[in-house]
Each structure stands twice: as structure tokens, then as C-alpha cells.
Amino acid sequence: FDHGGLKSGQRVLIHGGAGGVGHLAIQLAKAVGACVATTVSAEDVVFVRELGADQTVDYKNQRFEEVVDAVDLVFDLVAGDTQERSWEVLKPGGTLVSTLSQPSQEKANLRRARGVSYLAEPNAAHLAEIGRLIEAGKVTPFVQATYPLGEVAKAEERLENEHVRGKIVLEVSA
Description:
Layout: E1 11-15, H1 22-31, E2 35-40, H2 45-51, E3 55-58, H3 64-67, E4 71-76, H4 80-86, E5 90-98, H5 105-110, E6 114-117, H6 124-135, E7 143-148, H7 152-161, E8 167-171
Parallel strand pairs: 1-2, 1-4, 2-3, 4-5, 5-6, 7-8
């Protein structure tokens, strides 16, 4: 959330809240004191509520822009039409951060907002902070399945073809 400058008391919309990145993003946003709205499928509502989501939107049956009040930050893990519609709920001066595509600078300018593309890179300080949050019980990674390294193709196939909640982990034997 460094790229979006999320602070305590602000509102964030996280698209894809039940996924590998989204479920952690919900917990990290709550750890800084933000109010969290997230888009998920109906079967994931209870899961993300337990993680701390304040508002859930069933993206298959609701249009988030019709039910989510203005937010300071959109964390987009979906892209495409979802990203384009996200400008409608972003406050002037807010930020749309995408992990998948560069947000439209034209739309950002029209909203007096920022559009930022973000690709995670190793960062020792961030990892240390996440470790502290895990130790404090404020963040709990959810692992849906573990595969031995030799079954990487099977794990990748599952990621591509199934709805995955949380993380898929590859186990490396010593």
C-alpha cells in the first residue's frame, strides 16, 4: 500500500479479495486501520469477512460502482473492465494501483487522481514488516494447497483452471 499511500481511516476497494494477493491485501489494509471493501464471488464472502473485510460485493450479481461509496484507494488485481469501472468510485485525489496493467492516465487526470502500475519486487523492509504482522497475528496467509516441486505443472494447471482461494505453495524437499 506504499504506492497508494493508504492511511488509517481511509477507504480502500480491493478487487479479487479472496485470491493469493487479495486475501493478504485485506489484512494489511486492516492492519493500518483502513475500511475495506472487496469484490469476491458469493462463496468467498464469509472467508473475506473473517479476514476483516467491512463490505463485500458479489461481482457476479452486483456492480461494485453501484454499492461502494467513494474510496481513497483502489487496489486492482483483476484489470480489464473492472479497472475501467473503478474510476467511478475513486475520490478526487485518490489512487488506483494495478498489479496487472497500467491504469489510464487520461482517466486519472479527469478524476484528479493517480493511476499506478505496480509489480512486486523483493524488499527486505517490507518482508520484515509482514513478518512482524504475522507474528502479531494481524496477518495470516491462507494456503489452499501444497504441491511438491516436482508437481509444479499440476499446481500451475490448478491456478489457471480453478478458482483458488489464498495461496498455492510449492514445497522444496531438503
